[in-house]
Design a protein that fits this description.
transport; 228 residues; Glycerol uptake facilitator protein; single chain
Length: 228
């Protein structure tokens, strides 16, 4: 089990450091900032690269919602759920701490939102609670459907990380303006601890919505899509 939990720790660490790091450090870099498209691609690349690197060890969840969805779909043992969540949260928090240590070395650094998720005044596009809830549920549900389909027996072995990484990129392209895109409670928790906004007070939504979405995605797959 230690090797599985280590894989989840490092996979989630890389997701937060690479994805949130691209937003905090590179997105608005003068003249050559990567912008929304670059941040979306960065999140997809973190999952793609670590799924290839350690997915064979732990299943490559890197996300408490994904672990829950896979358990509901019968692809993961419920008894291992809490230990996976702990490893994922630890990886996310440690990555956020490393990112803060690096980013705060800049002379005019201000943490601000620190790539955290939010709604209302904390939404990049000033979207309210209801659209934030809906987008996070729907996007997480489709993320689970992509994961379950891409990792099914009908797909040639070894290809799953590609559609999963591209799927996460697409999710970010759509939903960054609404919530700054979570679909991952660990990712949301790690950076919220270092934000200078009220991100922690809104963190509940980025646990509740992804978990609901993951459960829905798994149920839809089992009931409608995963049968011959």
């Amino acid at each position: 089990m230690l090797n599985k939990l280590s894989a989840e720790f490092f996979g989630t660490f890389w997701l937060v450091l690479g994805g949130c790091g691209s937003a905090v450090i590179a997105a608005a870099f003068p003249a050559v900032g990567i912008g929304l498209l670059g941040v979306a691609l960065a999140f997809g690349l973190t999952v793609l690269t670590m799924a290839f690197a350690v997915g064979r060890i732990s299943g490559g969840h890197f996300n408490p919602a994904v672990s829950l969805g896979l358990a509901i779909a019968g692809r993961f043992e419920f008894k291992d759920l809490i230990s996976y969540w702990v490893a994922q949260l630890a990886g996310a928090i440690f990555a956020a701490a490393v990112l803060y240590l690096v980013a705060s070395g800049k002379a005019d650094f201000a943490a601000g939102g620190f790539a955290s998720n939010g709604y209302g005044d904390l939404s990049p596009g000033k979207y309210g609670l209801t659209p934030a809830l809906v987008i996070e549920i729907v996007m997480t549900a489709f993320f689970l459907i992509i994961i379950l389909g891409a990792s099914s027996a009908a797909i040639p072995a070894g290809f799953a990380p590609i559609p999963i990484g591209l799927g996460l990129t697409l999710i970010h392209l759509v939903s960054i303006p609404v919530t700054n895109t979570s679909v991952n409670p660990a990712r949301s928790t790690g950076v919220a601890l270092f934000a200078e906004t009220a991100a922690l007070s809104q963190l509940w939504l980025f646990w509740v919505a992804p978990l609901i979405g993951a459960a829905l995605g798994a149920i839809i797959w089992k009931a409608l899509l995963g049968k011959d």
